[in-house]
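Subject: for your reference before the review

Hello V.,

The reviewers asked for a structural picture of the protein, and I figured it would be easier to keep everything in one thread rather than splitting it across files. Below is the amino acid sequence we used in the manuscript, unchanged from the supplementary table.
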Amino acid sequence: MEAHGQNSAICPGCQRISRSRHSWYWRSLRDLPVQGTQVILRLHLGRWRCRNAVCERRIFTEPLSKVCAPHAQQTKRSGEIIAAVGRALGGRPGQRLMRRLGIQVSADTLIRQVKRAARLPALPQLIRVLGVDDWAWCKGQTFGTILVDLERRQVVDLLPTRSADSLGEWLAQHPEVTTVSRDRQGVYAEGARRGAPEAVQVADRFHLVLNLTQAVERELAVNRRQLRIASPSAPELPSSPTEEVKSQTNQIRVRSSIVMQQMEVAQQRRQQKLELFRTIKQMRAAGMKISQIASQLGLCRRRIDKWIQLDELSERNRMQPRPGMPESFREYLRQRWEAGCRHGRTLLAEIRKLGYVGCYSGLAKFLSPWRQPKAETRRPVSAFPDAPQLEATTLTG
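And here is what came back from the structure prediction:
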């Protein structure tokens, strides 16, 4: 409390001391909890009259600038903790943590404290290293651009759109930028070339690690058969020549590396299930009990019991298309595709009028096989002269 004794207070307008008391009032402030128990400070403060004729204030209350902000309902230290938790976790997760710590606060208050603490500071005179990334107005739909001074670790501006034009115009107004750290999108690369052609463009660490992780995961998924640790007690199953030729000749090669890797992963998973199915059949034919098979292979008894009753391992059943899935519009999409309309956004607008409620990525995934080059039939050279020749379908390119 900033007061001169109990009989005076300083006017926040003219900074003069007033000794003319107006009245008293009670003020409640939420403070940090003690041992998980909520703490509320009850302050008995006074109202004062300002006798300065030129001051705009006539009545003021005792200021508590070291304890809380004007009109605040909590202490400064409590607000700092709330802002830190909201910045780290967000609204609802932060609300659950704060409730566990004994601080009753809503998700909206957490977000409001984060926004209040993140007021954009005045632009520094020179911004040499600029970080550029996108941020979502509406998640998955509309995006803007955030600009960060990486040397001072401060947000310097927010652009309403994610475009090369907006970034280029901003950089043209700040010729002192020498380095631009961005993601690997071509939009920001083009904007940096327009607005700061002399600046050095580098990829930020987050997207480098993300791209590396995705590449490693795809490569490991393709080679998961070699990485799998086989059970030492499970017998090795020899594959027949016909099956080897069939696995080699039925492989479909496409130009898209992502689609090709997904197909290889699906084929490898199917082949592993077939090998496991034949292993269970052989172990059962050798007179082993279901409990022994489950113990050696580390599988569920229910799964082994189900497979023993089957003569052949059936294909996995495909899920029936729901009304909002692209599959339910297959006939219409096929007609429009054969008519020459192959622009995804145009087809998305048309089927949305027919009741499609999904997103563009789902439609793009559905249309991806149709965009692959046409296949031609080739007759491969068999590795086994006495085996019947099989026809394989491959794609050129």
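For the response letter, the relevant points are probably these. Residues 1-5, 231-255, 376-397 have pLDDT under 50 and may be disordered. The radius of gyration is 34 Å.

Happy to draft the paragraph if you're swamped.

O.
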